Amino acid sequence: MLRTLAKSPLGKAARNNAGKAAHEKHQPADIIRGSDELAIWLFFSLLGDRLQKTEDVYRDHARLWRNQPWLYRREALKTSWQDVARVLIRERVGLPVETAKRWVPCLRALYELFGGDPRSIFSEGSIDLTLALKKELKRQTGTDQLLGYGPKLLSLLALYLKDAGILGTVAGAFPVDVHFQRLLIITGGVSGRGIIRCNWLAEEARPRLWRMCADNGWRPLAVAQASYTLGSTLCVRCSQTADIHLRCPVYKLCGGKLPSANYGKRGIWDLSMPRMRKGKKDG
């Protein structure tokens, strides 16, 4: 499945940046690619990645960076999350309260623990070691110093920074989102009839997917972006698309779309649920 996806038109487009990802499309005009400012903007923008639609996240943060740049700086350290929320509300950033509650501890961690450089979060060179550091910091302080940053967002941040040329390879960096998890299930990478937890599946798959990409010379970010495009465009309209067998690169591998309602509501996949029809049938 990975090989098929990587070599498909979707994979090639992602690999060649034919269609820019949302974080590139909405990158503020005054931020230079490969700069420290880009690293900081991405660090805070990603806090909304699980709260909003991806396109909206970076559009909102481009506007926020332009209108309220101080919010990303050390000078915001003494600002309460309530005050941050008021700014986000005024600037029309999606889900401002949830974002503000993440923003303040992450701001403190960035400037007080990591010297204002998001790259320092990955100083040990792997996602697993960064997660271990996050766990140890929480044990020492009693609070999550990187609130909102789990394996998926840490992987995205590491891959975005690497893609921008300002961070080396971080082992195990692969964002296993809902689209990739479903892709693993419907193409037979995950089998069975019971219930599995999404977090468990993501963490079981993440290092394996990264290793497969590394061994085959595939860019993890390109493969992940191809999966996201497939899942958010073709998969969602599969049963209404007559020529899906011509357009979907994994059509022959697919056993039919598995509904994802339980992913968001209960954090599980129910493998016993009936699969949706592949392609539109006339009449």
Give a short summary of the structure.
The protein has 283 residues and is mostly helical.
Task: Give a written overview of the molecule.
This protein has 283 residues and is mostly helical. The chain has two domains: 31-163, Endonuclease III, domain 1 (Orthogonal Bundle); 178-270, no CATH class. 53% of the residues lie in helices and 2% in strands. The chain contains 14 helices and two strands. The chain has helices at residues 2-7, 9-15, 22-25, 36-45, 54-67, 81-90, 96-112, 127-141, 151-163, 178-186, 198-216, 220-234, 244-247, 261-266, and strands spanning 195-197, 268-270. A two-stranded antiparallel sheet has the order 1-2. Helix 2 packs across helix 12 (220-234) and helix 6 (81-90) packs across helix 7. The longest helix has 19 residues, at 198-216.
Continuous helix count: 14
CATH architecture level-2 label of the largest domain: Orthogonal Bundle
Enumerate the spans where pLDDT stays under 50 for 5 or more consecutive residues: none
- Overall pLDDT confidence: 92
Fraction of residues in helix: 40-55%
Query: What composes the largest sheet?
Result: 2 strands, antiparallel
Number of strands: 2
How far apart lie the N and C ends? 32 Å
